[in-house]
């Protein structure tokens, strides 16, 4: 796994270097900073995410599917949250990248992580933004008066409103290569819908719970994630792509569900009202995955 990550960094090195502070050392005026040369534009157009290697089902000795919760309040996960607004360098948040991909019909949305039912676009638009008449607007409409902007109450989901991401992944032991590997299968932004946000604006004491907005099949969105970059605090000259960050698991997450005989029930279904024990159960599942690879080399 480490070798594949190093290879990915080497393969993408040129595109990373060309992205950060473009032309900053060669610019003759401030206006030239950030502009790509024709060769850089052409090179970026030819960049593709590294293909996953083919894995025969007979080579999978052991496997486990897990669902994880990536809390964006944790500092280590900030690269998945920021920037909240588009920067002068063209960087976008992960939420904006996903929304742009689904709105341009490049990626299909699903209702759940099993991809059983597609998520309708009109429902997405309703959940992303809402605009309704307030009391003053209703009174003006009944009186036959012209409606103005202040007659409406509005709410819109923005990158700052994303609380977390949920992911579904597949851990498997490749007996041909003799190592434990991970494949990301699905990702979903966890937000408060625009309707609930509007209700919360009108009633600040109202408590609403964030839920997953929709799910996308991760291999289908890799190209868009590969074309957008994450700020690298350790070396600003070499930013990472969202695809590399997620595939190399450079984030912290808590397992909230694993595949099981009880219909893939979640941890909080059999450990209720005890967040400490739920966290310990999540860590137990993580350790069971790590221990499997270790046990394979014990005689």
Describe the protein.
With 299 residues, the protein is an alpha+beta fold. The protein has two domains: 1-47; 59-131 and 161-296, no CATH class. It has ten helices and eleven strands. The protein has helices spanning 2-19, 38-45, 94-103, 121-128, 135-142, 194-202, 218-226, 242-247, 267-270, 275-296, and strands at 60-71, 109-110, 129-133, 152-156, 162-174, 179-191, 211-212, 215-217, 229-230, 240-241, 254-258. Strands 1, 2, 5, 6, 7, 8 and 11 form a seven-stranded antiparallel β-sheet that branches. A two-stranded antiparallel ribbon has the order 3-4. The protein has a two-stranded antiparallel sheet with strand order 9-10. A hairpin with a 4-residue loop joins β5 (162-174) and β6 (179-191). It is globular and about 80 Å long. The protein starts with a helix and ends with a helix. The relative contact order is 0.17. InterPro entries: Gliding_motility_assoc_GldN. Pfam families: GldN. Keywords: Signal. Residues 1-20 form the signal peptide. It comes from Mesonia sediminis.
The total count of helices amounts to: 10
What would you call the structural class? alpha+beta
Beta percentage is 15-25%
- The tally of strands reads 11
Spatial gap, N to C terminus:
23 Å
**How many domains make up the coordinates?**
2
Order of helices and strands: HHEHEHEHEEEHEEHEEHEHH
Q: Poorly predicted ranges (pLDDT <50, ≥5 residues)?
A: 1-20
Gyration radius, in Å = 23 Å
Protein name: Gliding motility protein GldN
Signal peptide: 1-20
Keywords: Signal
């Amino acid at each position: 796994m480490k070798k594949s990550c190093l290879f990915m960094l080497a393969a993408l090195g040129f595109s990373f270097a060309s992205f950060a502070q473009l032309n900053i050392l060669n610019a003759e005026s401030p206006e030239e900073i950030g502009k790509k040369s024709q060769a850089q534009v052409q090179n970026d157009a030819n960049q593709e995410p590294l293909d996953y290697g083919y894995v025969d089902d007979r080579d999978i000795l052991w496997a486990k599917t897990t669902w994880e919760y990536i809390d964006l309040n944790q500092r280590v996960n900030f690269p998945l949250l920021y920037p909240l607004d588009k920067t002068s360098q063209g960087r976008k948040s992960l939420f904006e990248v996903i929304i742009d991909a689904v709105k341009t019909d490049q990626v299909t949305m699903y209702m759940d992580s099993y991809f059983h039912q597609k998520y309708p676009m009109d429902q997405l638009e309703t959940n992303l933004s809402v605009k309704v008449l307030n009391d003053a607007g209703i009174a003006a409409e009944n009186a036959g008066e012209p409606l103005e902007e202040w007659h409406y109450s509005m709410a819109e989901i923005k990158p700052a409103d994303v609380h977390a991401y949920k992911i579904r992944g597949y851990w498997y032991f490749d007996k041909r290569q003799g190592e434990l590997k991970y494949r990301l299968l699905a990702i979903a932004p966890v937000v408060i819908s625009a309707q609930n946000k509007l209700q919360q604006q009108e009633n600040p004491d109202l408590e609403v719970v964030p839920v997953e907005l929709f799910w996308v099949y991760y291999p289908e969105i890799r190209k868009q994630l590969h074309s957008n970059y994450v700020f690298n605090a350790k070396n600003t000259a070499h930013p990472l792509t969202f695809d590399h960050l997620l595939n190399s698991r450079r984030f912290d997450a808590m397992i909230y569900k694993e595949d099981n005989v009880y219909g893939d029930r979640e941890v909080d279904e059999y450990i209720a009202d005890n967040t400490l024990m739920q966290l310990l159960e999540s860590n137990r599942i993580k350790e069971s995955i790590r221990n499997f690879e270790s046990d394979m080399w014990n005689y």
